[in-house]
Amino acid sequence: MLKAILILPFNVLVTIPAVILYFCRFELISPVFSFKFILMLFLLALGFFLLAWTISLFCATGKGSLAPWNPIDKLIITGPYAYVRNPMLCGVFCLLFGEALLFQSKAMLIYALIFIVINAVYFPLSEEKGLLKRYGAEYAEYKRNVPRFLPRLTPYRKK
Predict the structure, then answer these.
(1) What is the pTM of this model?
(2) What is the domain partition of the chain in residue ranges?
(3) What CATH number has the domain spanning 38-159?
(4) What is the tens place of the pLDDT at every residue in 25-72?
(5) Residue among 138, 140, 141, 154 nearest 83 (CA)
């Protein structure tokens, strides 16, 4: 599990941003409480919370990891997954936007947007097909009822 966390989210959230910031201009956000500062804190906290919660669900409920080489053995539809199909990615999106605000970096904002577009294309074309193949009708029903990235207002309950 630690290997998957180090390779996947760590590279997306730390390694690539560090390289971007090394080559691009940035300025840390002022710690004065402003709308931008509060938004940054909210996005970073929400992103970290979603990432930690979904990783713990992968371990406890799914008996696997976020890595493709160690997939979960059970479809997870509880916790944040009852509201949105990709809460882990939603957490990563929040963290990337929070980092862009923290460093007040247009390059980081562009990276976040590119990352979102890539995942918006990848998931329906590849990941969801694999999940449908692995979990069949259970995933098809879940997919019909739970949005990919924008959460439902009420939790999904399996019928």
Answers:
(1) 0.90
(2) 38-159
(3) 1.20.120.1630
(4) 999 998 888 999 999 999 999 999 999 999 888 878 766 666 666 677
(5) 154
